Amino acid sequence: MSTSTLTERCVHEVVRRLPADQRDDIAEELRATIADTVEGRGAGDPRVVEREVLSEMGDPVRYAARYADRPLALIGPDLYPSYRRLTVTLLATVLPVVAVGLMLLEIVDGGGIGAALGTGVSALLTFGAQLFAAVTVLYAAAERLRRPRGVVAAATAWTSDDLPEIRQSGKGLLAATGLTAVWDLLLIALIAWQHTAKPYRVEDGESVEVLDPALWSGWIWPVLVGLAGLVAVRLAQVAAHRGTFRLAAWYAAAQALFTLSLAWILHEQMLLNPAFLADVKTLWSSPDPVYDGAALIVLVIGASGVFKAFRAARG
After folding, report:
1. How far is it, in rounded angstroms, from Cα 205 to Cα 192?
2. What is the rounded distance in angstroms from the CA atom of residue 268 to the CA atom of residue 270?
3. CA gap 37, 293 in Å, rounded
4. Nearest to 235 by CA among 221, 224, 251
5. Closest C-alpha among 70, 47, 54 to residue 12
6. 211 by DSSP, 3-state: which?
């Protein structure tokens, strides 16, 4: 293969990606540049030297992009940090609020917890995809419409003021973890106390439990085991002076056991003692939305806790 053929192939690959009115001038410039570079290498087989020069030039697609001043990436390095921060912020704040709001509206409309969860999942997928696509399209358009390469508007220039605060990982976080463990212990004690002490008196003077006594034949135990697991994990975090991914995984398992069991109890309206409900029926005229709404809140709080545990483990 002759040297001119190899050079012409490279020149063709570059200029065919450029506007027609620029092709001839840039083609001549490229040929001259390649020829001068080959000649400047001095001794050696011209064909070998030519291949070396063309290899050093790199991919013709990238080379053409330099002449066209056109980005090859959908979102370039100048805008990507801002794009990533905005996308993460919107997906972590706006998306959950919209999903939970739609789920609550579904419950208020009488759809039940199952329909509400379906609405929430659908909102997360559809609205999340739309949100992600909208931000991506806007930044991709800005990448192509903004000032020439390397020039960034002063209003969007990064400064040291943009540095995020370091997430709390010291004594404050450990203290909060310890207090949460104490709260879970108190909740276990309160559940057991109301079962033995029967603190509520109905109209005929009989003492009854607030929670349904039938729970002690089944569903209360996964709730208590889950709470005990959460206490154990949190105490382990305090002892280790930090969170780890292994502890976060154990936390997720304990939280799932507690949250899903409690959500099912609420969904099936098995939480409160029928005798207690009959005594306060004037305050409990329509229990379905209350139970389903409470179940939804329990699920959201549980998922949020798991997310925070893994985020803390990441450091």
Report:
1. 22
2. 5
3. 74
4. 251
5. 54
6. strand
pLDDT tens figures, 222-280: 999 998 988 888 888 777 776 678 888 888 888 888 888 888 888 788 888 888 777 76
Q: What is the dihedral of CA 63, 64, 69, 71, to 10 degrees?
A: -80
Query: If DSSP codes are grouped into helix, strand and coil, which group holds residue 204?
Result: coil
Residue 261 main-chain phi, psi, to 5 deg: -65, -45
Measured CA to CA, the distance from residue 262 to residue 220 in angstroms comes to: 8
Alpha-carbon dihedral angle through residues 304, 182, 264, 279, given to the nearest 10 degrees: -130
Residues near 213 by Cβ (< 8 Å), separated by ≥ 6? Answer: 195, 273
Instruction: Tell me the CA distances in angstroms from 142 to 25, 40, 135, 186, 206, one per residue in order.
Output: 30, 42, 11, 54, 72
Distant-in-sequence, close-in-space partners of 288: CB < 8 Å, separation ≥ 6: 110, 112, 269
Q: Is 307 exposed, middle or buried (0-12, 13-18, 19+ CB in 10 A)?
A: middle
Query: In a 3-state reduction of DSSP, which class is residue 276?
Result: helix
Of 241, 238, 298, nearest to 266 by C-alpha is 298
How many whole angstroms separate alpha carbon 102 and alpha carbon 115? 11
10-residue mean pLDDT profile of the chain (315 residues): values are 68 82 85 86 78 82 70 70 82 81 73 76 84 84 60 43 51 68 83 83 79 90 90 81 79 88 83 79 55 66 70 61
Give per-residue pLDDT as tens, 97-113. Answer: 888 877 777 776 667 77
Output the six-digit token pair for 43. 């001794």
Beta-bridge partners for 207: 201
